[in-house]
Design a protein that fits this description.
With 110 residues, the chain is of the alpha/beta class. The chain is built from three helices and five strands, in the order βαβββαβα. Strand 1, helix 1 and strand 2 form a beta-alpha-beta unit.
Length: 110
């Protein structure tokens, strides 16, 4: 017997996750990413190791590469990211169901 197909639905907030769970069936795993899961480094200790020796690293962007941002996962989001990755292993499909505004689009992109 094949396992049932599951979809992981990621939304922005726990309140939205709770509401959406009421409407979707057992074939959906609805979880919250608790807002943004990546950000620019907040301090020197947050800069990824591979960039630490670059003179521009403290800016959080690489001016030599069209100001490409250096994104990192904030310490308070590492557990959430790990949990979402784990749940994705049990899913056949990922649905990013963030808000349709600029902020929601940014959260989905990360």
């Amino acid at each position: 017997m094949s396992k049932a197909s599951k979809s992981l639905v990621i939304v922005e907030s726990p309140t939205k996750a709770k509401t959406i769970r009421k409407f979707l069936g057992k074939d959906y795993i609805v979880e919250s990413c608790m807002g943004h899961i990546r950000d620019l480094p907040q301090s020197a200790k947050d800069i990824p190791e591979k960039f630490k020796k670059e003179k521009w690293a403290s800016l959080g962007v690489n001016p030599d590469k069209n100001f490409a941002p250096i994104y990192c996962i904030p310490k308070n989001k590492t557990k959430i990211v790990s949990e979402l990755k784990s749940k994705l292993k049990d899913a056949d499909e990922l649905i990013l169901a963030t808000d349709e505004d600029r902020e929601g689009e940014s959260i989905s992109w990360h």
